[in-house]
């Protein structure tokens, strides 16, 4: 796998400020959290599991599938309070290797949303500085959310 | 693959009582059905297709992907009336191997919902006795459902 | 891989007329577009990346995963105006090999919906002449869509 600049590879959604508006009973909730995605280093949270050349295919190749169990924190610093995990997968789904399709759950394990989940699906064209994903559903506190983005 | 206790391995969502509330035009529908998931035995309905060590990686390893075409029945007994199939996939998405991310359709093939589908996405932390998944959408009878859980 | 009739294999959703009704603030939007899916030929837009026998498993086998970056056009002709890409994946999820589970984004890159996306999930039993999929969410113009089908 190609590791740019260092063996510490905060690939794709590291410390991405995720803003979330839940239109819940005509009430709007704004929520910020940070997902840290590491494909290498001491705290690997994502691994390649399939691709055109098998499980070891580069994440930058069209078709590669990555399994994730990323820490979700309250602040942009990985050492800030851990409030959940982002569990699921993404697949490199752009012919030039510059886009991902994300499918995962945010599982809140601490803080006021503890026990609730958000279901995420969306295109992550990581050459763009700002991206917007869809929250397709949720459980617990987020059971009735819809029309939300982050 | 590790097969606990027997060669008959009703893995993860076997006979899980699935309760479903569809808030359909302000009307609530409660629906129960049972999904039977067999990774071995005479009636295999799920196979591993990718993972860190290739298609044969254990379902209990982080990253393993399983394709499913599970029977859906009216009652908890596999021999009760077959009313549909659960088709799609899940991926082991917890670093310790104890959690799945589910993505599949419930395709009703009999009963009053015949011809309709439900789209499911959610975290299945199978160490927990009760789990809640999201119904993200549906077709036919379930075209307008939202805010539903099961 | 089995290629029926020719080396040009417009497999599964080629030129499928996709109709879309967005119930957006009680207003209905009807939208038609065409997704062209090529697993072989000069303009390959989809590749197999995992399956029971590895990345080269036939798309017609239960369990095979296909990554897609398909052109989306305004008309049924591949040479009509390109308005977006369908990026994501599908998995063969029927034991007899005759059904797919689709998970992808429609990313509009031109036309009046440029910059918006639709998130699709659904069963594609391709032996049926007409199929209906769920739009589970969207961004931009489609941020508030729900209860939609295509």
TrEMBL record, chains A, B, C:
It is found in: Secreted, Extracellular space, Apoplast. Dirigent proteins impart stereoselectivity on the phenoxy radical-coupling reaction, yielding optically active lignans from two molecules of coniferyl alcohol in the biosynthesis of lignans, flavonolignans, and alkaloids and thus plays a central role in plant secondary metabolism. This is Dirigent protein. The chain crosses the membrane at residues 6-23. Belongs to the plant dirigent protein family. One of its GO terms (biological process) is phenylpropanoid biosynthetic process. It holds the Pfam family Dirigent. PANTHER family: NUCLEOPORIN-RELATED. Coiled coil: none annotated. The lineage of its organism: Eukaryota, Viridiplantae, Streptophyta, Embryophyta, Tracheophyta. Keywords: Apoplast, Membrane, Secreted, Transmembrane, Transmembrane helix. GO terms for cellular component: apoplast. The keyword Translocase does not apply. Homodimer.
